[in-house]
Amino acid sequence: MKYKKQAIADSQPSMNVDGVKAWLGDVFISAKNEPNKDQPLCAGFFHLEAGKPLDYTYDYEEMKIVVEGEFNITEVKTGNKYNCKPGDVLYFADGDHIIFDTPHRAVGFFCGQRKPL
């Protein structure tokens, strides 16, 4: 077992998207001896501040729960829009093209099947 006290407060690395105030970091990564060692489970926090939206296309599977603030999410393929608040859960499939926006600030906890950052 692993335990990380108040991981939500940890400083996360920038996503380095020009003009976008977004940070994302892995808190835990599944053990390398797992059956899916090429695509471990990675879990951590995604922070977004108001400003230019984040335009992101997934190349892996991910689930996210909103833990602070409010995300406005647009699914580009369908045009569907969602206003996501704490407690809301999202599933993103490989290939999903998503635009993340927030009126102020938002934080999501994610668990994705991808290579570590």
Automatic annotation (TrEMBL):
Listed CDD domains: cupin_EutQ
Residue runs in coiled coils: none
The organism's place on the tree of life at top rank: Bacteria
Pfam name, any one: EutQ
UniProt-listed SUPFAM superfamilies: RmlC-like cupins (SSF51182)
Protein name according to UniProt: Dichloromethane dehalogenase
Taxonomic lineage from the root: Bacteria, Pseudomonadati, Pseudomonadota, Betaproteobacteria, Nitrosomonadales
